[in-house]
Structure formats: structure tokens, C-alpha cells
Specification:
Blueprint: H1 3-15, H2 25-39, H3 46-61, H4 71-90
Helix pairs in contact: 1-4, 2-3, 3-4
């Protein structure tokens, strides 16, 4: 497994923290879709996987129903995704 794939697995695990009963169902579903349909989908190009996951996370972060203590988690994941995306584009 490549370094980028390992980091993607770690991001997927962290996103799993949004699968919490304190988080509204629509946000949990969006996070799950982001991981399953995009982040871990090896049939898609890496930059598309990372970009779409970051986009969905942005929507989640801007959702007024997101519990406030999950906001920093979303921002941290977005930052890591953007860093990975830059690495993929420059390699």
C-alpha cells in the first residue's frame, strides 16, 4: 500500500467519527457517502477522489446542524485532503 493510500485509510477512519448519534442523520449519510463513493473508491482517479471528498466535507462543515465540536475535525480533514491533493498533482 502506498503512503497516500495509507493516509487515505487514516482519513476514512477519522471520518468515521462523524458516525455518532450526536450528528444528524443527513450529515452521517453524507460523510459515509464521501468515504464509500469517493475517498475509498479505487475505480476513480486519485485527484477526483480527494477533491470530491473535500467538497462534501465543505458542505458538511457549512451545515448549520453540525454539532460545533465536529467543526474543527472537518477542517483538519479538509486540510489533510488538500495537502494530499497537492502532492498527487505535483507527482
Amino acid at each position: 500500500m502506498t503512503d497516500i493510500e495509507e493516509r487515505i485509510q487514516q482519513i476514512a477512519q477519522v471520518l468515521g467519527q462523524l458516525d455518532d448519534t450526536q450528528v444528524p442523520r443527513n450529515i452521517r449519510a453524507s460523510a459515509k457517502d464521501a468515504v464509500e463513493k469517493w475517498l475509498l473508491n479505487k475505480d476513480k482517479e486519485m485527484d477526483l477522489r480527494l477533491g470530491m471528498t473535500a467538497s462534501i466535507l465543505d458542505d458538511i462543515f457549512n451545515d448549520a446542524n453540525l454539532p460545533i465540536h465536529f467543526g474543527p475535525l472537518c477542517l483538519q480533514i479538509q486540510t489533510v485532503l488538500e495537502t494530499l491533493l497537492n502532492e498527487v498533482r505535483h507527482s
